[in-house]
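Phosphoadenosine phosphosulfate reductase family protein (Enterocloster clostridioformis), 333 aa
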Amino acid sequence: MVESKYTATDLKIMQSWSLERKIQVSQTRILEAYKIYKNMCYVSFSGGKDSSVLADLTARVCKVLNCKLVLWFSDTGLEFPEVKKHVKEFPTYLRNRYGIEVEVMVDYPRDKSGKRISFRDVVLTEGYPLISKTVSRQVHDVKKLGKDCWAYGCFNGSETGVYNMQKWKYLINAPFNISNKCCQIMKKNPAKRFNKSSRRIPIIGTMACESKQRKTEWLHNGCNAFDKGESSSQPISFWTENDVLEYLYRFDVPYPSVYGEICIDEDGKYYCTGYTRTGCVFCAYGCNLEKGVNRFQRLLKTHPRLWLYCMKPVRYGGLGMARVLRYISVKYF
């Protein structure tokens, strides 16, 4: 078993630090990456608020080092239009504010032959991302390999020590495919190709507070993982959602309008009046857990054309999500 560099207590302590201290530590981690890899780094820039903060922090470091800032954006076709607009405009802001050279590299998901592929291609060939990555993967395996595979035991309770998925057993008989492969195909594969072709290491804006997996990764590696097969830096891993919003607010950093306004509540906490997360517009992971108006109902109100494409049957050129959501009893209008 790999020994962890940090403990959960370490993470809680670091998450409680002031924003000023977090900025100092994060910039130190970024500086370490640039020094060790002789400025051959790039920011994985999605256009969201987290990666906008990361790009701004990295731009400060590049100004000190007098080196070029490289932003890499993978155009998955799953972004809000406001996010894509921000991706085009943000580099100009960085150039003007910090007086540095900024290069934007735009990439696309592609198949093995190099042909560009879409989310629609993925859901039709591999399956829809539903419930969670774990559930989707196990359902996909059972559908593909049959009831004799290990994954089937997760659905009938015979496998101990794993997430109990008996409640999702009915998905095995769904009249459509289910898979966890879209993230790998749409995001991870393009990033791996760029890492190899550019010989640069990625600086990524993920945070430990976002998921159990990301927390575990931080506990094992810390912010900078330079001693594993694929080196990377996650310098804001110990930040919180509130830190990101405070940074944008205090330093007047531009962000996509889809988030709305950043405000402060009576307890001094920051919040968005619009969307809180802008990841992949059509992703259904976790939608079954949302209370009140869910992401798809909200999409109908804010971006009706995207909603229509999402819900339209496949035979009419849409994604066919309406029947998928009905199958798992999630409202979509």
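The longest strand covers residues 69-74. Residues 131 and 289 are 9 Å apart (CA to CA). ok done for today
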